UniProtKB/TrEMBL annotation:
Chain coiled-coil ranges: none
Keywords: Membrane, Transmembrane, Transmembrane helix
Stretch forming the signal peptide: none
SUPFAM superfamilies: Class I glutamine amidotransferase-like
Transmembrane segments: 21-47, 462-486
Pfam families recorded: ABC_transp_aux (PF09822), DUF7088 (PF23357)
Domain of life, per lineage: Bacteria
Name used for this protein in its record: Uncharacterized protein
Length: 491
């Protein structure tokens, strides 16, 4: 064999050797690719069929918008019965709405408890569902886009206003969704529908009071979320206050108690009964109410507070002001230094100088020393501050300790009053829980929305961004592609 034939033989062997190596390398790559893809499919199926996917998610939002707190986890761990969370809308059509955040958030309840089941029903596709399944008697007022939380004991309806924090914007003169209140709402609802014992709060009628169920519906909802039942009572039509009454609530009465009603209320108080009084300013003397309040060393100021301190007047209007939330054991859960709750047309609450060892008065809300109390009666001089506009009283001089809350305003917890700031209901519910020696109000703050924005973008910054995104990044990608192509070409 001559030299030419030997060279040709070597080339053929070399070519065969290269092809064989390439084939072996390609086979390994193919098998490895198949294994990786199969593993990914199996792993994805396992994760998708369990709650692992939700547990693996990481909440990167600055205010932990999609995370539940330890307080909620405690509530979920204590469950021993099934709870359904039913959203009344088409889940698949909410991707671009704010309800998408709620849908994502509610998954945390189902992920962290085997007793929670979440489902969605579109009333448009199933028009009889609300009437037949959720509210046969029509007493819950269930509507589309509501959530219903229910157990075998009872149900609780959560509306948009329960789930979202809605505030009035003075710049646009419109209402805007400013935060997510979903955790407070859902956790409270779960606790309400699973509670064995529901304390009853009776609100009164017969003295020109505001209608609580109609004008204070948000307060009622918040009380229910904290495990209370709210009912109406007319003291004139009952022989005595019912034994199941945990609290008697007076909301802005315009007429005085009768002597018979006062006797019933005193008997209730002397046996450990608790009361709440919300008195907006009125130029009518309420002698029997005053007689009852004197048992706690408290009286009404019969004035209108004008807060003259510039940093306390609300938008420069002295009759609307930001009271100081006093730091004490009652208010501590509210974080008084950070808590803002405006009042409008409030009257002062006086603490009598008739001190007794068995009576304790704790200030809850106060004004600055620059405030003025303008009398509601002619010929009575105005008073100078500081004033109390909310106090808590305890009387230990009878069979059982009796407590009262007296606030010189009712509007701050009305639906209209809370359309601007809804912190009033949280303040009052916290005080009511103190009266019950209850820590039921877990007080989960609203998760405020934050709007990230670019500021001070200079021309130099824009140029750098242009070069980086339009030129550098594509070149890197192209270079990586060429490198891979050349390497594969020489295999």
């Amino acid at each position: 064999m001559d030299m030419k034939d030997r060279n040709n033989g070597k080339k053929k062997n070399r070519k065969f050797s290269i092809n064989k190596r390439s084939l072996r390398f390609g086979s390994y790559s193919f098998v490895l690719t198949v294994i990786v893809i199969a593993s990914a499919i199996i792993l994805n199926a396992i994760v998708g069929a369990t709650k692992i996917r939700e547990k693996l998610k990481i909440d990167l939002t600055s205010n932990k918008l999609y995370s539940i707190t330890d307080k909620t986890l405690e509530v979920l761990k204590s469950l021993n019965e099934k709870v359904e969370i039913i959203g009344l809308f088409d889940e698949s059509k909410m991707g671009d709405s704010q309800y998408a955040q709620v849908i994502e958030f509610v998954k945390q309840y189902e992920t962290n408890s085997d007793y929670i089941d979440v489902k969605y029903v579109d009333p448009d596709k199933n028009p009889g569902y609300i009437q037949n399944e959720l509210d046969p008697e029509g007493i819950l007022g269930v509507e589309k886009y509501d959530f219903v939380v229910r157990s075998s004991k009872r149900s609780k309806v959560l509306s948009t206003y329960d789930i979202f924090d809605v505030s009035f914007s003075s710049s646009t003169y419109s209402y805007q969704v400013t935060g997510l209140n979903a955790e407070y709402a859902f956790t409270g609802a779960i606790r309400y529908v699973t509670s064995d014992n529901i304390p009853v709060i009776y609100y009164t009628e017969g003295h020109g009071e505001d209608d609580v169920k109609d004008d204070y519906s948000e307060l009622v909802s918040s009380l229910e979320l904290n495990g209370y039942r709210v009912e109406k009572i007319n003291l004139a039509s009952v022989d005595k206050i019912p034994d199941d009454a945990s609290i008697i609530l007076f909301v802005n009465p315009q007429r005085d108690l009768s002597d018979a009603e006062l006797d019933k209320l005193l008997y209730y108080m002397e046996n450990g009964g608790n009361t709440v009084f919300l008195f907006s300013p009125a130029n009518t003397k309420l002698a029997n109410f005053e007689e009852f309040l004197s048992r706690y060393n408290v009286s009404l100021g019969y004035d209108v507070i004008f807060e003259m301190a510039a940093n306390k007047a609300f938008y420069g209007q002295p009759y609307r002001f930001i009271p100081t939330v006093e730091s004490n054991s009652i208010n501590s859960v509210l974080e008084p230094d950070k808590f803002t709750m405006p009042l409008a047309y409030a009257q002062s609450i006086q603490v009598l100088k008739n001190e007794k060892d068995w009576i304790t008065v704790t200030p809850l809300l106060s004004t600055s020393s620059e405030a003025v109390g303008k009398s509601l009666f002619e010929g009575v001089e105005d008073k100078n501050g500081p004033f109390y506009v909310g106090v808590a009283g305890e009387n230990n001089g009878y069979n059982d300790t009796s407590k009262t809350i007296v606030i010189g305003n009712a509007y701050f917890v009305s639906d209209d009053g809370m359309s601007v700031y809804d912190t009033g209901k949280k303040f009052l519910v916290n005080a009511i829980n103190w009266m019950q020696d209850s820590d039921a109000d877990i007080y989960i703050p609203v998760k405020e929305y934050t709007t990230p924005r670019l500021t001070k973008v200079t021309q130099q910054t824009l140029t750098i961004l242009f070069i980086g995104l339009i030129i550098v990044v594509p070149l890197i990608i192209m270079g990586a592609g060429v490198f891979v192509w050349l390497r594969r070409r020489h295999l």
